[in-house]
């Protein structure tokens, strides 16, 4: 079966997700998270690619990234290096080399419209652990960009690009305001359909411009991601 078309156009911001095969746990202890974050930084340096990391959240069996690209093809190169390097690390650590894939499949990526929609996705990603009751507040989750922004040292913060101007000056109050069901449903719809995230007319224009119609049909029947 032919693979669904993957968008990899420079100048866009992407919401990216991947999870372990069978929803198994891939982060068991602090070292596992630290290695992934080290690889997240190293992926751009090794590939000599200008990728901006706007937000991230590593959960026990999956992760979310919000990345801004500059050139066509950059996202694929960056993500290929990151997922391959992480897979090698996990298989080596657990002595499971040759036993099969670590991830359930190729990462999922969705372009995001600027401003309010980008703001919504960053909040969605950074609140992931709080919504899952793994952390009382978003910034308490050690393995998310909210913690890094508020508690990381200057060297650690080099991983992150500055927050977009649309983010409220009262960052923590905004971040810890519970998501509306409408916001959550819109993002989950984007994830489960493999659709761009933005205003309806913008989504339609992106689908038409990048010929994503067949991709949306193929992904429409996938199980929903919480």
Question: Can you offer a commentary on this structure?
Answer:
By secondary structure, the protein is α+β, with helices and mostly antiparallel strands. It has one domain: 2-Layer Sandwich (Alpha-Beta Plaits). 44% of the residues lie in helices and 12% in strands. The chain has 10 helices and 4 strands; from the N terminus they run βαββαβαααααααα. The chain has helices spanning 30-47, 74-94, 116-126, 128-131, 145-151, 154-157, 171-175, 181-193, 200-209, 213-219; strands at residues 13-19, 52-59, 62-68, 108-112. α1 (30-47) packs antiparallel against α2. The longest helix has 21 residues, at 74-94. Residues 220-226 have low confidence and may be disordered.
Number of structural units classed as domains: 1
What is the share of helical residues? 40-55%
pLDDT below 50 for ≥5 consecutive residues: which ranges? 220-226
Major sheet description:
4 strands, antiparallel
Q: Quote the average pLDDT.
A: 89
Rg from C-alpha positions? 17 Å
How many β-strand stretches?
4
Global morphology: globular
In CATH terms, the superfamily is Transposase IS200-like
CATH class: Alpha Beta
- Provide the structure class: alpha+beta
* Beta-strand percent range: 5-15%
Oligomer: single chain
Distance separating the two termini: 27 Å
Q: Provide the CATH architecture.
A: 2-Layer Sandwich
Order of helices and strands: EHEEHEHHHHHHHH
> What is the helix tally?
10
Give the strand order, joined by hyphens, for the main sheet. 2-3-1-4
CATH topology: Alpha-Beta Plaits
């Amino acid at each position: 079966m032919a693979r669904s078309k993957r968008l990899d156009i420079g100048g866009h911001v992407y919401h990216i997700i991947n999870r372990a095969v069978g929803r198994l746990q891939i982060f068991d202890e602090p070292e596992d998270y630290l290695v992934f974050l080290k690889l997240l930084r190293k992926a751009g340096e090794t590939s000599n690619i200008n990728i901006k990391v706007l937000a991230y959240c590593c959960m026990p069996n999956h992760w979310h990234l919000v990345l801004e690209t500059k050139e066509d093809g950059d996202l694929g190169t960056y993500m290929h290096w990151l997922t391959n390097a992480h897979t090698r690390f996990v298989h080596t650590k657990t002595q499971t080399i040759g036993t099969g894939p670590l991830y359930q499949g190729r990462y999922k990526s969705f372009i995001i419209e600027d401003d309010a929609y980008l703001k919504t996705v960053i909040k969605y990603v950074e609140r992931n652990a709080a919504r899952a009751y793994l952390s009382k507040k978003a910034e308490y989750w050690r393995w998310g960009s909210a913690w890094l922004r508020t508690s990381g040292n200057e060297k650690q913060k080099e991983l992150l690009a500055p927050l977009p101007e649309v983010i409220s000056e009262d960052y923590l109050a905004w971040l810890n305001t519970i998501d509306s069901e409408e916001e959550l449903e819109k993002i989950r719809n984007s994830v489960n359909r493999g659709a761009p995230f933005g205003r309806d007319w913008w989504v339609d224009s992106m689908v038409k411009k990048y010929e994503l119609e067949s991709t949306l049909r193929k992904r429409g029947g996938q199980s929903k991601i919480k």
